[in-house]
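W.,

You were right to be curious about this one. When I first looked at the sequence I had no strong expectations either way, so I just let the prediction run and decided to look at it fresh. Below is the sequence, 312 residues in total, followed by the output.
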Amino acid sequence: MSVRAETRVQPAPRVVPVVHSKLIQAQTRLAWILLAPSLVVVAGVALVPLLQTVYQSFTNARLASERAVSFVGLQNYINLLQDADFLHSIWVTVQFTVITVAIEFLVGLGIAMVVNSNFKGRGFMRAAMLVPWAIITVVSAQMWKLMYNDVYGVFNDLLVDKLHILSSNIAWVSDPATSIPAIAAVDIWKTTPFVALLLLAGLQVIPGDIYEAARVDGASPIQQFLRLTLPLLRPAVVVTMIFRTLDSLRVFDVFYVMFGSRPDTMTMAIYAQQNIVTFSLMGYGSSVAIAIFVIIGIFVIAYVTLLKVEAS
């Protein structure tokens, strides 16, 4: 009998991908080198002023004053918490933010859903809906202020003289009961197209195959919207809500054009500007600015937490 020698194949030694590791390190260094100019610019125009504002909020600095600046600790923030005008400005700003962001999201989502569908003239519709957003805020605010005028404004003329819905003219801007809804309408008219554009971008990345599969399985349009569209649109919703909330919480221009520095309609941004520019209270005004920054951060964290968006 012949004995067959059993040959065992030895596994090849494992080669450590040294070349691949060095390539990744080189690409990482190149990425940081390319990002360095942008990071320097961001640090110069954002980080340095922010740190300077934080420092000034702990001092009694005054604008264009020769008096020596002294450190006051948390006194500015203590005074801020006891300042009735500042607390009222928070209420005005938050009230405006809640009204505008909620309505803009709902209306913008509806517009985005319509524009995302296939119909004749869709391209023209997408371009036309951005016209209000393209108008400069100061110009649109002044235009609406004229339309709100209680003597010759188009709204009173339409509601009182033409349609006879109201019995007398309303001072939309001057009356405290209608001031916030009136200015919220201005922001909703102007910014809803921007919200629709952001949500439309989120809708267009959703694959159409999943809707076809859902229809085959018998899902109704409402079920498709609730179980497919909204969950897949969540990242775009978070970005949209953060952008709009940030803009609304630091709103200045539209309020200043329509109301000026009126105490009952003063926002946090106008209150900060009044303390820094009008009263020259650089330290106290800086504490107001930091408070706005903290409030915005709270809203952003709440959005990310409640909508459960994780970084991929």
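Here's what jumped out at me. The chain has one domain: 82-306. And, maybe more interesting for your project: The chain has a mean pLDDT of 87.

Coffee later to discuss?

I.
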